[in-house]
Amino acid sequence: MTTILIEQIRPELTWRLRREVLYPNEPMHAMEMEEDKQGLHFGAFTDDKLVGVISLFQNGVDFQFRKFAVAPGLQGQGIGSLMLQHITGFVQQQGGKRLWCNARTTAISFYLRAGFHTTGQTFERKSVSFEILEKLF
Fold first, then answer.
1. What DSSP string describes 42-94?
2. How far from each other are the two terminal CA atoms of the chain, in whole angstroms?
3. Does any domain span residue 120?
């Protein structure tokens, strides 16, 4: 695999991958979230092409990541793991004590391999099942 560069990006740069990977049946304008303005957004690039996105939101010492997506043809190649390592390090540098997400149940094993733990808190939204997963520092 080629080199992956992860850097902070503007929120609107996340929208295309958000839609393609997470919400393919939604219009592009639905990808913008009001809270995007308060978040930090990171992109993974390979050969100057954006191939992964993740958005991070801080509430005190708690950080939640949302809208985590890797381009379909590149999933399973370690890009998501690198992105998760990047934001984990960022949260720790910022003095964060907890990193958490609403994980789709289909992705729970990925997060467990990355050191996250299940909380037993589950819910469903738009016919998609989720569980809250967390990593404590």
1. EEEEETTEEEEEEEEEEETTEEEEEEEEE-GGGTTSSHHHHHHHHHHHHHHHT
2. 31
3. no
pTM of the prediction? 0.93
Q: How many domains does the chain have?
A: 1
List pLDDT tens digits, range 83-135. 999 999 999 999 999 999 999 999 999 999 999 999 999 999 988 899 999 99
Q: Select from 113, 14, 126 the least CA-distant residue to 65.
A: 14
Domain that holds residue 19: 5-97
Q: What element of type H or E holds 17?
A: helix 15-17
Indicate which CATH number applies to the domain containing 54.
Answer: 3.40.630.30
